[in-house]
């Protein structure tokens, strides 16, 4: 086999799908920020030494062999296991949600190194502070920013005038803030509170989700979520499926912590 067919890559396992008897189709975000799908033949067999290293949300070092369609993973070595699953359901649900969004926005053969460091920062933030409800919205805005889908937060998307405090609305279709004077036809427009606008601008200025150190109330969280989920859905043109799982875990948590009697 020619040496040029072999290569090594670092990445985080985003998802894996069982194929055939004991094989695995693995999707990773690689260190250069591009998406890679590769086959791990026999990885699901109990005797496979690759199995433990290819778990979801593990940062791995891989040796691969180029194939005509898909490359083949010949060796896998775990570099960092994000212990989100051991930290409980809430962090697991959040981490799956992050991974699904990255899978949606990352492209094969499209290098984007900031995307990789953003994803690692967010996984570490979820692992270290699973209850911090600023992490996911902060990550969503940063994800839109590094992939080129950043919403406009400073000037009206219609008339380009600077947005004044207490004179702002938001349109997902038009990609950002609108002044109250502009009434574009056919666009969906939602109210946007000053507090939510300030938090979005704060997220925009600090890319890393772990540097937010913001207290986000439940109502503000709902508002940010409606805007950012809407933008994510608009650009991906589909629902992020693990959102439902994250919501279910959130509901169970608030039911179990509600005062009884
Ligand atoms: Zn305007």
Going by CATH, the homologous superfamily of the largest domain would be Recombination protein O, C-terminal domain
Computed over alpha carbons, the radius of gyration is: 21 Å
Strand content: 15-25%
> What is the CATH domain class of the largest domain?
Mainly Alpha
- Average pLDDT rating: 89
What percent of the residues sit in helical stretches (DSSP H or I)?
Answer: 25-40%
- Look up the CATH topology of the largest domain: de novo design (two linked rop proteins)
Put simply, the count of helices is: 6
Give the end-to-end Cα distance, rounded to a whole number of Å: 71 Å
Major sheet attributes: 5 strands, mixed, barrel
List the ions, cofactors and other small molecules found in this model: zinc ion
Spans with pLDDT under 50 lasting ≥5 residues? Answer: none
Topology:
Blueprint: E1 6-19, E2 23-30, E3 35-40, E4 58-65, E5 71-81, H1 89-105, H2 113-128, H3 135-146, E6 169-171, E7 176-178, E8 190-191, H4 194-205, H5 218-236, H6 242-257
Parallel strand pairs: 3-5
Antiparallel strand pairs: 1-2, 1-4, 2-3, 4-5, 6-7, 6-8
Helix pairs in contact: 1-2, 1-3, 1-6, 2-3, 3-5
The structure holds zinc ion.
Features:
261 residues, alpha+beta, OB fold (Dihydrolipoamide Acetyltransferase, E2P), de novo design (two linked rop proteins), 2 domains, five-stranded mixed β-barrel, three-stranded antiparallel β-sheet, globular, binds zinc ion
């Amino acid at each position: 086999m020619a040496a040029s067919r072999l290569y090594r890559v670092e990445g985080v396992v985003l998802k894996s799908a069982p194929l055939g008897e004991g094989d695995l189709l693995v999707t990773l975000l690689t260190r250069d920020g591009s998406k890679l799908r590769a086959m791990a033949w026999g990885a699901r067999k109990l005797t496979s030494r690759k199995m433990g290293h290819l778990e979801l949300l593990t940062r791995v070092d891989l040796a691969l062999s180029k194939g005509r369609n898909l490359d083949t993973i010949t060796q896998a070595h775990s570099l960092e296991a994000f212990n989100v699953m051991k930290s409980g359901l809430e962090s697991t649900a959040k981490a799956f949600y992050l991974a699904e969004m990255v899978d949606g926005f990352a492209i094969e053969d499209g290098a984007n190194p900031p995307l990789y460091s953003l994803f690692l920062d967010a996984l570490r933030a979820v692992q270290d502070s699973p209850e911090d409800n600023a992490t996911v919205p902060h990550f969503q805005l940063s994800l839109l920013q590094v992939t080129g889908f950043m919403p406009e937060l400073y000037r009206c998307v219609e008339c380009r005038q600077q947005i004044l405090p207490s004179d702002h609305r938001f349109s997902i279709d038009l990609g950002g803030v609108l002044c109250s004077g502009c009434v574009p036809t056919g666009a969906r427009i939602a109210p946007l509170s000053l507090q939510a606008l300030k938090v979005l601008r704060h997220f925009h200025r600090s890319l890393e989700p772990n540097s937010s150190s913001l207290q986000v109330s439940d109502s503000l969280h709902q508002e940010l979520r409606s805007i950012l989920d809407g933008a994510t859905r608009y650009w991906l043109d589909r629902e992020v499926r693990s959102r439902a799982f994250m919501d279910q875990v959130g509901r169970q948590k608030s039911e179990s912590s509600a005062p009884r009697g």
